[in-house]
Amino acid sequence: MTQTATNPHDETAGYTAMTRKASLSFIAVIAALFITAALALVYLCLALDERQVRHSEADAAKAMQSRLDKIETALVDYAFWEDAYEFMGERLDLAWAYDRNNIGPSLHTTYELDGVFVLGPDGRTRYGLIDGELTEVAADDWIAGDLPALLANARQGSVEDAVARAYFSVTGMPAVVSAAVIRPDSSYVEFDRLSYLVYVDVLTDTKMKAIDQAFDLAGLKASLGERPDAPEPKLTLRPELGMSLTLQWRSEELGKTLLMKFLPMLLVLGLLVAVLVGWLRGRIARAASMIDAAQQALRISEQRFRNISEASSDWIWEADAQQRLTYLSERFTQVTGLAREAWLGRPLAELLNYDTHLLASHAEPGGLAGRKPLPCSMHDSRGTQRYGQLSARAVLAGGTLEGYLGTVCDITEEIEAKARIEHISQHDALTGLANRHRLNHYLNARLNEGVSGDRPMFLLALDLDRFKPINDTLGHAAGDLVLREVANALTACTRSTDLVARLGGDEFIVAATDCRTHEQAERLCERLIEQINQPIRIGANDVSVGASIGIVAAPHDGLTAEDLLRYADIALYEAKSNGRNLYKFYEPAMNERIMERRQLEMDMRQALRRREFRLDFQPRYDAASQTIVGAEALVRWQHPSRGLLSPGVFIPLAEETGLIVELSDWVLNEACLNALCWGPELMVSVNLSPVEFQRSDLVDRVGAVLEQTGIAPSRLELEITESVMLEDAASALTTMNRLKALGIRLSMDDFGTGYSSLSYLRSYPFDGIKIDRSFIAGLDQSDSSEAIVNAIVSMGHALSLTVTAEGIETVAQLGKLTDLACDQAQGFYLGRPMAPLVFQQVIRDVNGIAVAELALPGD
């Protein structure tokens, strides 16, 4: 019987594999148990959250139905009432309805109704309340929706004592609009002669907050229309008439909370079990490794020499005394891709580029060359140049040179990495242009070489115009694309001897060395501006930017890189201040203006503390009665050394430096304090800077001034220019609505100078407009000016706005405005800006009323 010999290596290998397989199976079972437990916990918690969402949806439906039932009950009580039919039916008794509060302010306080209207059989408004106050605003002007269809439903439902209801929009907010006919009893059937009672319940944030607290619906808000993409929980109410109403709120997510509490505990437990299993598996693995140790030691011993020879360097070579190759290791082919046999017997110098004489010095007694690797290079099988370090020593036999033995260490990646690092350290990562470090090195080298009047160097500092809106609207990826396109344009317009650098953001520098005269530098700037102004395609959009350029020349303007960059930046600032998309050469006077501006900025920071600002008031008259109705507050700066400064001198600087907020707070506070002594009917008007609308604290600041001074909000008017809407229309509308909620007035200043002022008047909550003085100047001399002013006044009255004409300088202009039914007038003819006490005296003289004296700071 023949026995098959067993290989010990195969047995130990099988034992080790079996041990590892068994331990892995055990770990898999444990892991499956923990994963199952975790998934079960996640499922239960998510199911709990889902149930909570369904329950909250039922609560939301119940909350809305409760509010609708309450309003509907009130509407039935008032509409199907004999007294209402008698006093509000075919004839309208205002005293019964409003003065005796039968259908009056109590509906607003009791039922929180924002609007109550009585409409005639033809749908025209006969009686209206908004926020409990009588109003002349028609219901169909205030309510955005199919009101005739709602009235038709109310008329049809009246047979069964029913009312009609729909969701419409009121001043941009969702509202429940309910309607019913006003009839004495259910037997009355002549509905075509009956009037309608309409209730409007605007779903404001305050009301939704009350429902939130009553039904535990956190963050409840309502919006018109379907919201299919809105996250749950939500509830969409779809009535037969009007728009759908979507309710949204936040879920408590009790399941997720529970999950966050227990899942970490399960994970910690799993970690402990994993540590224990790992420890056990480690013990088993160590036992198995003892079996492999002997064979592993043998394999290591077999590979030791090969590892040493191949790992100590990239490849080994041997050559005879004439430096002809006699041996190449296998690593040679792996590194270079060349066949070893093709190079054996050929000179080493043919393969490598190195100093052959230095290599030969290794044979000399006491030679030191062998202690340091020699630099070398070669081309691999693909023709790519590679770099290496050649180590060698002479092979001597009895003092005779037999040949050479050495290694070649490939350092190509190291050389290329150093080159990349060097490039990155001197170039901008986004555009590939030179960076600030490279620019400074270039300028210093160029200036050290010498520049002269015959061979000047022009330094151009560029800053992009209209770049920030691209970043804000299209995103930073689009902004990066624009910067790369601008970099390409700059490179295309310059020569190879010039240097184009990006300092950061949208700031670029061009160092032009081939421009000999200012005219050549000007032509270069014109090419740059023209090229940069070309449209850039970003997705489906074409965007365009401009460029402002400041130019400085060496040696005329400076001989150091620091001075040239600083002067170029000053010239750039001058270019941007003069309208942008143009270029300016540096002049010493620019530096003086910069220093003067900085001094003015420092003085302004101290001016408020030193009480150097003051307010003058220009009266505003009622055009018909010639009585004063208010005044516009105008700030002045009594500078200690420069005298009295007008707003045009320091307001732009205050906007740039951020001091406009502190200055505006002072103006608002002083204006309101002064107005307190004018009488309870006169209003004060204050101009707001567009910069203030870019801040989120404007409404809080105005509210704080109202609270501190105690002035009635209706006496404060804020004048706003059209540029506010141009910056961010949606944000401006939100801010204006919040300001209106304080009770103050809003007026559009300089009306008629913007291209879309009419659309703004229809969309924004303005109370008045001020006709720009440019139209008033030609009013008594030009028929076209009169026609324009007449059109503006008519349009303002059509929109229920107070129309004020400013810049009146002659009696003829005032007469024309009176004939055109302009509401208010303001100008030098009627009164120049004057000190507070002088204005108080004018009020006494013109209006014939006594005003209180107010002790003002500095009076």
Structure described in brief:
By secondary structure, the chain is of the alpha+beta class. Helices cover 47% and strands 22% of the residues.
Task: Outline the secondary-structure elements.
Blueprint: H1 8-79, H2 82-88, H3 94-99, H4 106-111, E1 115-119, E2 125-130, E3 133-134, H5 139-142, E4 143-144, H6 147-157, E5 164-170, E6 173-181, E7 196-202, H7 205-215, E8 218-224, E9 234-237, E10 245-250, H8 254-311, E11 315-320, E12 325-328, H9 330-336, H10 340-343, H11 348-351, H12 356-360, E13 374-379, E14 385-397, E15 400-410, H13 412-426, H14 436-449, E16 457-465, H15 468-474, H16 476-493, E17 499-504, E18 507-512, H17 518-532, E19 536-538, E20 541-543, E21 546-554, H18 561-577, E22 583-585, H19 588-607, E23 613-622, E24 628-639, E25 643-645, H20 647-657, H21 660-675, E26 683-687, H22 698-709, E27 716-720, H23 723-727, H24 729-741, E28 745-751, H25 757-763, E29 768-771, H26 773-776, H27 783-798, E30 802-806, H28 811-819, E31 824-826, H29 836-847
Parallel strand pairs: 21-22, 24-26, 26-27, 27-28, 28-29, 29-30, 30-31
Antiparallel strand pairs: 1-2, 1-7, 2-3, 4-5, 5-6, 6-7, 8-10, 9-10, 11-12, 11-15, 13-14, 14-15, 16-18, 16-21, 17-18, 19-20, 23-24, 23-31, 24-25
Helix pairs in contact: 1-8, 15-16, 16-17, 19-20, 21-22
